[in-house]
Amino acid sequence: MPIDHSLPYDDSNIFAKILRGELPCNKVLETEHSLALHDINPVAAIHVLVIPKGAYVSWDDFAAKASDAEIADFVRAVGEAARLTEADTQGYRVLSNTGKRAGQEVPHLHVHIFGGQPLGPMLAR
Ligand code: AMP
Fold it and tell me: Residue 85 carries which DSSP code?
């Protein structure tokens, strides 16, 4: 069920639980402000999620409220996760669903990295 990204942060979401160590994850990379993990239900040969450690609902929320240090760390973590998983060797796609209409299901900002195969057109029509 897609969520409303304009709602206040709800720390019962699955990524908040992973960040608190209450649930396991298949970690790719951890930095001061970010965590990269393999998606539990991959839709591409390589499917990694990158999340900030801070409590941000969405890209919109993060862009408005995160510190410069958090933003720089997050952007670098996306690039580093792509390199570590070798998604960079043949090209990859970065995507962040933001809000209900975009299909965001987990109300904690996450960027998807897709790679390891031809990815086809950007959107199905
Ligand atoms: P979105 O639809 O953009 O909100 O994407 C949420 C993503 O989180 C989906 O691709 C799920 O497969 C993924 N996901 C849900 N639970 C977990 C989990 N415990 N560990 C890793 N990925 C998860």
Answer: T
Strand, helix or coil for residue 54: coil
Asked if residue 12 has its Cβ within 6 Å of ligand 1, the reply is no
Q: How far apart are CA 114 and CA 112, in angstroms?
A: 6
Match domain 14-115 to its CATH number in 3.30.428.10, 3.40.50.300, 3.40.50.2000, 3.90.1720.10.
3.30.428.10
Interval between CA 40 and ligand 1 midpoint (Å): 6
Q: Is the pLDDT of residue 1 over 80?
A: no
Mean pLDDT of 32-61: 98
For residue 66, give the amino acid letter. Answer: A
**pTM of the predicted protein model:** 0.96
